[in-house]
Amino acid sequence: MRRKIMIILAGTMFLTAAVAQVSAQSVLMNSAETINQGNLKLGIFPTILFGKNGGDSVWGVAARFGYGLTKSIDIEAKAAFFKGLKYFGADVEYWFLKGENFNASAALGGHITDYKGGGDSKGIDVALMASTRPVKNLELYGGLMLAFDSIKNGGNYTLAHIVPGIEYRVSDDLDFLAEVGIALNDNSSSYGSVGLAYYFLR
Question: What's the number of domains the chain is made of?
Answer without folding.
Answer: 1
